[in-house]
Amino acid sequence: MVRSEQSIPVISVSGKTLPEAWEKSVIEVWERGASIVTEYDKEGDPPSKDATVVLCVEDPFAEPRIHLAFPGGIEDLEKYRLEVVEGVRDHWVCPQEGKWTYTYHQRLFSYCVVGHPTVRGSSGDGGYAAVDQVAYMVEKLSRVPHTRRAQAITWMPTLDPFTDDPPCLQRIWCRLTADGRGGWCLHMNTHWRSRDAFKAAFMNIYAFTDLQRVLAEEISRKTGCEVSVGRYVDISDSYHIYGAYFEEFQERFVRNLRERTFEQRTWRSDDPRVQAGIAWGRAQIEEERRKGRDNR
Question: What is the C-alpha to C-alpha distance for residues 51 and 36, in angstroms, rounded to an integer?
């Protein structure tokens, strides 16, 4: 039997809005997480705080939608959303040249088996055509709304175990339920093997709830029925706060929690400051594209 002080806690949190649920999850891990060392620790770093976490956002597009304690600017949030939902950086993926091994968009919309160059017998090309898993999900849910087979994976065993930065997201799963008004409600689960609770999770959830919105719109377009966005559930095997940045975390997150109200810690997505940040993020992506075209 594993002694209780050595076990990894299992934590479940729920909130109506994205900032509320994320904030609760981070507090819970900070207060209840197990102390565990990581592969990234440097000498002198405290062990991380770690837990298995199930996080539910009951109404992903309810306002406020932005938490001001996530590390980054609104422009970074928009660039990441564009990366996940629209694939604006899929062209950076080229493991054979030592570049990125994946983007989530590429794995979900164009999953193509490749081998790691260092693996004996690997040609780097799995010989299979790319699979648009998101298109499959939309098609399956449109034909069989109650299906339990609408899922997409990211893990690639021919490549990911041999890289230093394998994907954290492992799988997304969606299902429709009747909304009682003649339409449907699309629910999404995402499964993560490992997750930086403070520095990554908020941006992840923000982007993947937007992908949930896109899926709902596509199913609605295909079926002619109204499809709304349902609850979003986020499951992490290892949801952690790294010891290396405890001081930063306490200054940025814990102090914020202590000194500001929830209203002061969050912004609505239609706030002019948020809209300006979104526009700036899109402009930066357009500049990236322009430079890429000029360098061809």
Answer: 10
Residues 8-42 have pLDDT tens digits of 999 999 999 999 999 999 999 999 999 999 988 89
Q: Which fold has domain 59-294?
A: Thymidylate Synthase; Chain A (3.30.572)
On whether the CB atoms of residues 38 and 239 are closer than 8 A, the answer is no
Cα(209)–Cα(60) distance, rounded to whole angstroms? 6
Distance, in Å, from the CA atom of 129 to the CA atom of 131, rounded to the nearest integer, reads 6
Residue ranges of domains in the chain: 59-294
Q: Name which residue leads in pLDDT, 116 or 88.
A: 88
**Beta-carbon-side half-sphere exposure of residue 247 (alpha carbons within 13 Å):** 3
Per residue in 196-233, pLDDT (tens digit) is 999 999 999 999 999 999 999 999 999 999 999 999 99
Backbone φ and ψ for 273, nearest 5 degrees, come out as -70, -40
Tokens, residue 77:
């949030």
Question: How far is Cα of residue 188 from the mean position of the Cα atoms in its chain?
Answer: 12
| Cα–Cα nearest to 156, from 166, 147, 146 | 166
**Closest CA relative to residue 288, chosen from 58, 83, 34, 98:** 83
Residue with tokens 């893990």: 155
CB-based contact 77:269 (threshold 8 Å): no
Closest CA to 155 of 133, 136, 174, 137: 133
Pairing of strands 266-267, 227-241: unpaired
pLDDT for 233-243, tens place per residue?
999 999 999 99
Residue 193 main-chain phi, psi, to 5 deg: -80, -35
Mean pLDDT score, 158-185: 94
